[in-house]
Amino acid sequence: MDLTPLFKPKSIAVLGASQNGNTIGGRPIRFLKEYGYQGAIYPINPKYKECQGLKCYPNITALPEAVDHLMVVVRAELVADAVLQAAQKGIKSVMIFSSGFAEAGEEGKAMQRRIQDVAREYNMPVCGPNCQGFIDHFNQVTATFTGSLVNGDFNKGPVAFCSQSGAMGYHFYGMAQRMGLGFSYMVSTGNEAVLTTSDFLRYALDDENTGLVASYMEAINDPDQLARCADLAFKKQKPLLVMKVGRSMAGSQAASSHTGSIAGEDRIADTFLEQNGILRVDSVGQFFDLFKVFSNPKRLKGDNVGIVSISGGAGVVMADDCERFGLNVVTFAPETEENLTQKLPYFGSAKNPVDLTAQVLTASEKFYDCLKCVADDPNTDAIVVFIGLLEHMKDILVPPIARLEKETEKPILVTWMACDDPIRKDFKKYGIPLYEEPTRCIYALGQLNRFRKALAHQSERKKQPTVAPDQSLTAKVSQLLDGDSKELDEMTSKELIQAFGIPATKDVLVTDKSEAGEKAAEIGFPVVMKIVSPEVAHKADVGGVILDIKDKDQATQAFESIMQGVSRARPQARLKGVMISPMVRNGLEMLVGIKNDPVFGPVLMAGLGGSYVEIFKDVSTRVLPITAFEAKDMLKELKAYKLLKGARGGAPRDIDALVEVLLKTSTLAMSLSDRISELDINPLLVFEKGKGVMALDALVSVK
Regarding the domain delimited by 298-461, which CATH topology (the fold level of the hierarchy) does it fall under? Predict the structure, then answer.
């Protein structure tokens, strides 16, 4: 859908217009007039002939033209008919302030579906319902009733912000405006009946006035579309920031009831955002900190930081924070230290962090010379400056920093503790990010570095093809998934994964103790014997596993012991028999799994396996599809990666074979996403380099 009529309308109508400029129906007209909207404005309300000095019309059909945009401020039960009338009139876009739809129960959901049906039939963009509207700052379109505009704050700038909560979004916007942060767009999406957050993000990313796109999200309703937005952000080299709430159970439930959306599991949301190069923030304050650093067009080329401070203690704090946020307090080149030593008093420090001491600050030129030394060092990628108090020395300290900002391509960030408004205004004028607390400054620089790494990661990721479903294999294994059981037994689960090329042990099923010894001998001792039942997932917990069986007699005894023990522990379970497998040793136990998330779809997991997987929780996840590059990245995130590489003199493991299993498991998950809900391969033994892998156990849960 073309969103131009929505954001850049040449004419606007307001259904439910009010004479009172302080009401929901009156503020949009008031703001359009106050903030200089240049197009035609048509109030609609049968009560008035004139509204706020404008001719008022009794209904939509009475309008003198098919306007570009209609704002709807009427009761919920009247909205769907109004949207249909607008479409029949030829109106090009609609925004619905009214509440009482999907967030309010089944009747509201039905009314919202009517709106969706009309919008799709007429291909008409609709924002809302249950939203607070939007602002296009560069075209003076104030299609909102927010109280944030009552005080006259209207700063233009490079930030586009999209919020799924109207109140939270505009409270945030109001704070940012009072801080002097400039916006290109501000959008409240509401229930997203037609247009979603991703639609608005995509529009903003394509906008030439926008350099940074951010969003407050309560639910990711369309992950595929958001991933496409992330691709566009990568192509445009624009940062995409998201504050995704609902980390806690209480927060998730509140978000769902607020907009009628499914929040999804937060850990998977975290994974999805990270792998798509979207920077996640956890607070409103972090948003503001990043708006400052990303509003400056300078970008990092590396993670090496030079710190210049008037306080030795502040330098230590910032150095600690650099390590915490993934930055490196670099060692200066010898010539840099030598130059600084000549400029500093004997009790200062020329090493990084540089301790200027108060003596250097008495003259602008001395201060500039020290800053210049650090900026010119070949090892530094960014300069961080710490100052505290000293408002009376503003005219000595600010000009050297502003001068260096013009001369260097390296980002400069300043922490000035206990500064005043004149200092804030000076740094805003020069476009230099200013913070009043050192940790927030280093956090912002760390996120700038994360953005650099995310761009590099996305570049590598896009060089390789992603895994895809294999329909031929889907047809081949479909009969394995038929039946009334919610879980496949181990033998069937292994047969399924082997069909997709994942190595597993060759097993034999026995149903009578008389054949147990002979079948075990055919496999070759030692062997493992396990119960086979779709109702028994954790076999060891009910005596369903016996290891290291060395002869026929032990095999016969093991059969009896397993069948009797499981029958006592699970009398209702259907026991198919006992599976005999070779006893495989000398591999590192890993876990490979799949979970089908209701929001994000198939999610791949890899981690340290075996009996203690729930204790150590050393697991990495990715939302599918993935590339081989991402599969390797998953393994590198694990603490167990050191074991795979051969820690403490151990033999390196077959990482390439493990990566291949991750890719084949991904193909399986995508091919059967409508049939299986979970898959666990645990343990998957990873042998020495070049010797492959082997699945010893598998469990498939069926939808």
Answer: Rossmann fold (3.40.50)
- DSSP states along 92-149: --EEE----SGGG-HHHHHHHHHHHHHHHHHT--EE-SS--EEEEGGGTEEEE--GGG
Maximal CA-CA distance, the chain: 100
| Residue stretches of the chain with pLDDT short of 70 | 248-264
Q: State residue 672 phi and psi, 5-degree precision.
A: -115, 25
Helices 266-275 & 223-236 angle (0-180, nearest 10):
30
Q: 394-407 and 421-430 are packed helices; what angle lies between their axes, rounded to 10 degrees?
A: 20
Residue 29 neighbours by CB distance under 10 Å: 27
Q: Which of 334, 676, 300, 621 is nearest to 478 (CA)?
A: 676
Give the pair of three-digit tokens for residue 367. Answer: 């201060």
CA distance linking residue 60 with residue 44, whole number of Å: 7
pLDDT at 253: 57
User: What distance in Å separates the CA atoms of residue 31 and residue 149, rounded to the nearest whole number?
Assistant: 8
- Residues 113 and 535: their CA atoms lie apart, in Å, by 41
Architecture, CATH, for domain 1-130: 3-Layer(aba) Sandwich (3.40)
What is d(CA 420, CA 427) in angstroms, rounded to the nearest whole number?
Answer: 11
Q: What's the CATH superfamily of 131-295?
A: Succinyl-CoA synthetase domains (3.40.50.261)
Work out the percent of the chain whose per-residue pLDDT is above 70.
98
- Can you read off the two tokens belonging to residue 266? 């937060």
Q: Is 495 exposed, middle or buried (0-12, 13-18, 19+ CB in 10 A)?
A: middle
DSSP element (H, E) containing 308: strand 304-309
**pLDDT at residue 367 in the model:** 94
Residue pair 301/456 in contact by the 8 Å Cβ criterion: no
- For residues 250 and 227, give the distance between their C-alpha atoms in angstroms, rounded to a whole number: 27
Measured distance CA(10)–CA(550) in Å, rounded: 85
Residue 537 CB neighbour total at 10 angstroms: 14
Tokens representing 233 are 């952000």
Taking the C-alpha atoms of residue 280 and residue 270, their distance in angstroms, rounded to an integer, is: 8
CATH code of the domain occupying 588-702: 3.30.470.20
pTM for this structure? 0.90
In DSSP notation, 232-247 reads HHHHHT--EEEEE---
**Per-residue DSSP letter, 392:** G
- First vs last C-alpha separation in the chain: 35
**Token output for 652:** 């390196």
3-state secondary structure 455-466: HHHHHHHCCCCC
* pLDDT of amino acid 612: 76
Distance, CA of 200 to CA of 189 (rounded, Å): 8
What strand order describes the sheet that includes 279-280?
141-144, 133-136, 183-188, 156-163, 212-217, 240-244, 279-280
- Evaluate whether 1-130 and 298-461 have a shared fold: yes
Pairing between β-strand 183-188 and β-strand 212-217 as defined by DSSP bridges: unpaired
Q: DSSP string spanning 12-48? A: EEEET--S-TTSTTTHHHHHHHHTT--SEEEEE-TT-
Amino acid identity of residue 278, one-letter, is I
Residue 48 neighbours by CB distance under 10 Å: 17
Q: What are phi and psi of 593, to 5 degrees?
A: -150, 170
Helix axes 438-461, 628-636, angle to 10 degrees: 140
Contacts of 374 (CB under 8 A, 6+ apart): 306, 308, 332, 336, 340, 352, 354, 380, 383
Architecture of domain 509-583: 2-Layer Sandwich (3.30)
Q: Where are the domains of the chain?
A: 1-130, 131-295, 298-461, 509-583, 588-702
